[in-house]
Co2+/Mg2+ efflux protein ApaG
Amino acid sequence: MVSQITRGIKISVSTGFEGTYFKNYKLHFAFTYEITIENHSKDSVQLNSRHWEIYDSLNNTEVVDGEGVIGKKPVLKPGEKHTYSSGCLLSSPFGAMRGYYNMINFTTTKTFRVIIPAFRLSAPFALN
């Protein structure tokens, strides 16, 4: 698990490998990740959008931007946390992801960016 705190918001990530399968005559590697967002600040905040950079070992990079996370824009009061799971497909058994959340502080009404630390995606059978 990797973790990072930005402006009192802690992001923790754990990953898993789900398996391989063929889609459109091409082998894919399926990964899951679980993210916990914890509010260690003194203000209530809301996650509004996300930005992901998804890398695989074949040098392919995919950038994904969108609103909220899995259809939600969670509000976190001080001391609260929100956990969600999602996944991605790679064309190789190794990769990584990193990104950030755009959030708003309800006390100051200012938006700010919370870093999602880089984390690795690797199929266990491919490790040496």
Summary: DSSP finds no helices and nine strands in the chain. The two ends are 20 Å apart (CA to CA). The mean pLDDT is 95. The beta strands are 2-6, 9-23, 26-39, 45-56, 61-67, 75-76, 81-90, 94-105, 111-122.
